[in-house]
Write a structure and sequence with these properties.
InterPro entries: ARM-like, ARM-type_fold, Ataxin-10/CTR86_families, Ataxin-10_domain
Largest sheet: 2 strands, antiparallel
Number of strands: 2
Order of helices and strands: HHHHHHHHHHHHHHHHHHHHHHHHHEE
Organism: Cetraspora pellucida
Number of helices: 25
Strand content: under 5%
Function: May play a role in the regulation of cytokinesis.
Strand order of the largest sheet: 1-2
Shape: elongated
Radius of gyration: 30 Å
Protein name: Ataxin-10 homolog
Keywords: Cell cycle, Cell division
Helix content: 55-70%
Length: about 475
Amino acid sequence: IKLMEFEHTSQLIRQLETIDPLKNVDNFVHLLKQITTEAQDSSKFREILGQNPKFWVIITKTCLLAIEKLIVGEIIVIPIILWLVRAFRNIVATVTENQNKALEQEWNKIIENILWYCLSQPDSGDDIQYVTIIRSGIQALSNLITGNTSIQEFIWSDFMSRNESNNLLRDTRYSVDICLIRKSLVTSGSGMCILQRLLDRAETLLEDESTQNFELTYESVVYSESDLFPLLFDSLNPPSSLGQSLARRQITLLKLLDSKLFSSDSANISLYSCTRLLQIFDTICPQVIFSMQQVNIVDRENQPQEIEDTSILYTGLVLLLQCFGKLSQDGNDKIRECLFKGGIIASSISLLAQADKTFPRVTKATSSPSLQQGISEFAYIKRDIIRVIGNMAYDNCSVQDEVRRLGGILLVLNQCNIDNNNPYIREHAIFALRNLLINNSGNQKLVKELEPIAPVQNDVLSEIGIRTELGNNGKIKLTTDSNKT
């Protein structure tokens, strides 16, 4: 079998030698596609093909020639370059000897030159051919170093030693997974410069729907090793912002993490990263509560505290709650245990209690524009807290008891109403209440023993002159409001 495979690869190499790539583009590309497919399917094929020196000579010579033609405007060679890059990407995957031979032929520089050219084109973000080459090139560089410590050190040292004008990584449109898996990226000055520029432009790139640059930035950051998130997050708070809980770049990083969790299986987040998220949450919760206590929604002009000063804090809170909401619903028992032991229930209930005092419900019948505007700036907080509590309480008696002990059940009951600034909070609250009560006699008893104290006036009924009152029998009855007649 090995002899047959050796003969097969030798035949492919002879075909590569006999075809003129510039005169027979289609035939040459067809052969490259065959090699790419077989290399993807068989590690043995990759090993045997890579052992033949002629293979490296042919593809290197062909690729350098194609790059020369492309630079002078002969775009007919683009398919050749694309499939050479893809074939190379698959040939070096998990085969150390192939990786070493590729480095000897300086394929790291060849791929880099191709990427430079593609990125320099005005329509590189729109042209599907350039986008495909860029992505394949990134994957090729990643495969070149994966599992090969010596090549990692060589290429990393080369990248990090370059100056500003000669460092491909500093182009904010260029994402290379191979660099984002290194801890030195967040501990070196050059690496931090790269990350900061990526994060500074991430939101701007997101708003530009005409390119795929944001996707490149997103892939760069979110596909790094999960254990690097805490290190990266902490490195983004410069000394000048020590008085602030969160820096803008940290907010951007949280947005990218949030996107990652909601676009994939969040169960792959490490317990280390989960614990760090909880620490961040615990740090900002007291500050958010204090900020809520200072808010006077109606008297906006005379508030002693600028809303802008707290916008980063609230944005960070909402992002963390969204992350916890996703993590708590994915059924990973270790993650949920980490959240519970980290005190997420106590922090969430404290937040909900203060939010319930500070921000009354807003409905369509609310007549005060200043009230609506003020509360809308802090929208979604109560809903997201309820969601976390409900998810955590699912099939977990310890969480159910903790919520009852901290007085959280009544708070959840209070949210079973429509609130325009917390869409679907009523549905989330009903679901949370269900998860708190099921198979928990203590919680069921607490709710059963509740007695009506006073009716809550409905804004819509009040507008038409109808009031709700509590009758002697404990039932609600409707009366006419004399002030409206």
